[in-house]
Structures are given as C-alpha cells and as structure tokens.
Amino acid sequence: MTLSHSPEEDAQKIVSRHIKLLHRYNEAKDAAQIIIGKLAVQKKTTIRQIHEDYGLTDDD
C-alpha cells in the first residue's frame, strides 16, 4: 500500500522542519552570545574584542 502525499503537505513539512531548525539555531546563538558577554565582563573587555580575540565575525 502506497501513501500519496500532496505537494502542499510535503512543502508544509519542509517549512515546519525548517522553522524548528531555525528556532534551535537561534537559541544556540543566543546562548553563545550570553557566554561571550559574560567572558567579556570577566576579562573586563568588550564583546567586540572577544569576537576579535577568537576570530569570530559578525555573521558568527
């Protein structure tokens, strides 16, 4: 028995998965920025300097 799916159902699944992955990515990025901020405070420097020290770009 073969189950057929409409293109709309398949597209909706793809979009839903993409949104979930973006949400997880944003949570991880936010957590990393919090850690970088705390590191900057501990080292008494700026977040920008921490980014430079670790070779991070604005896109990271």
Automatic annotation (TrEMBL):
<dbReference type="Pfam" id="PF07061">
    <property type="entry name" value="Swi5"/>
</dbReference>
<dbReference type="GO" id="GO:0000709">
    <property type="term" value="P:meiotic joint molecule formation"/>
</dbReference>
<protein>
    <submittedName>
        <fullName>DNA repair protein</fullName>
    </submittedName>
</protein>
<dbReference type="InterPro" id="IPR010760">
    <property type="entry name" value="DNA-repair_Swi5"/>
</dbReference>
<keyword id="KW-0234">DNA repair</keyword>
<dbReference type="GO" id="GO:0034974">
    <property type="term" value="C:Swi5-Swi2 complex"/>
</dbReference>
<dbReference type="GO" id="GO:0010772">
    <property type="term" value="P:meiotic DNA recombinase assembly involved in reciprocal meiotic recombination"/>
</dbReference>
<comment type="similarity">
    <text>Belongs to the SWI5/SAE3 family.</text>
</comment>
<keyword id="KW-0227">DNA damage</keyword>
<dbReference type="GO" id="GO:0032798">
    <property type="term" value="C:Swi5-Sfr1 complex"/>
</dbReference>
